[in-house]
TrEMBL record, chains A, B:
Keywords: DNA-binding, Transcription, Transcription regulation. Gene3D superfamilies: Homeodomain-like, Tetracycline Repressor, domain 2. Residues 41-60 bind DNA. The keyword DNA-binding applies. This is TetR/AcrR family transcriptional regulator. SUPFAM superfamilies: Homeodomain-like, Tetracyclin repressor-like, C-terminal domain. Residues 18-78 form the HTH tetR-type domain. InterPro entries: Homeodomain-like_sf (IPR009057), HTH-type_TetR-like_transc_reg (IPR050109), HTH_TetR (IPR001647), Tet_transcr_reg_TetR-rel_C_sf (IPR036271), TetR_C (IPR011075). It comes from the Bacteria. Pfam families: TetR_C_11 (PF16859), TetR_N (PF00440). It comes from Pseudonocardia adelaidensis.
Amino acid sequence: MASTADRTSARRPGGRTARVRAQILAATVELVARDGIAGFRYEEVAELAGVHKTSVYRNWPDREELVVEALLQYVDDLGAVADTGELRRDLVDFLMTIAESLGKPTVRALELATQATHDSPAVRRAATRILEGRAAAMRRRVDLAIDRGELPPVDYSLLGEMISGPVHLIVNRGLRPFTRADAERIVDVVLAGIRATTPHT
Amino acid sequence: MASTADRTSARRPGGRTARVRAQILAATVELVARDGIAGFRYEEVAELAGVHKTSVYRNWPDREELVVEALLQYVDDLGAVADTGELRRDLVDFLMTIAESLGKPTVRALELATQATHDSPAVRRAATRILEGRAAAMRRRVDLAIDRGELPPVDYSLLGEMISGPVHLIVNRGLRPFTRADAERIVDVVLAGIRATTPHT
């Protein structure tokens, strides 16, 4: 069990403990990607991270908490929507970022693990937080567009699902590459559809 | 190796061989759903199907062919789009059918297996055929709508991806139930968006 002092130093950025924790999380991502959430072993995490097994157990006595913290590391990558002032371009860029990210073996495997483990409360929490991070970024960008009168008031999470759903489908199937033309067509149809179906207030 | 006579009788519906084959395929679906494409064993298929192991090997000497034929069994379920004369209603029903199907543990596991196995040519072929079955059903229904002037000429596969992508995302995440209101909103936005962005000829 970790003492309060351990916990404090563990959170101090740049410290040795922080470095060990980062190594353990990176190793966990890699192993979950390879073997799934149920498949990876603490021994392997320690070996890959180059730390002693007790470091893994001491920092994460709970296996699911380790998985969740490892998964949440990649939230930042997916959570950003730029504001260039042009909504269409920013959403197209957002879709291209998602497509690129989904093409990475690690992220793809994590996606699969998340889908495969509906039953785990910890993983469900992680998935919720990942989606909330993305949804918050979408919301900020969409709110700006609404403020500027580019878009009527809209359910931003459905907007997010409508533009990112087809990207996931196309990339996850692996049947054809996802192109910028796809992203543009999707964003154009969804934005035009929302403008045409949302009542003006 | 199967003789020509065997192959012929195997395809005669209602025959004993056909029954054995159907049992083997059903058992394969169940085991692939549980253990993944790489995980299931011929011994287990035979045991679950209540047949001798040699029946499995004789009918499907190639493991991937067995998986593919088992996967393709569920194409029919997903490949139908009704024609009630009202395009919106038919597409909404189509999305509800997909959502219901994706909620089944077997289909969900098969989806995961398909996504996880981009590298297998046989599985890729099966996935292509499944999608082509669905796309063909969409195309027939959309062609009718275009003929009737309900819709401008449209890339029906992108239309299919745009309406079914969000369903997959929502159901596969398992974060919230997919409702008929979701299906209606998605179909309304996509149809309105296509009408607004497709040049009239």
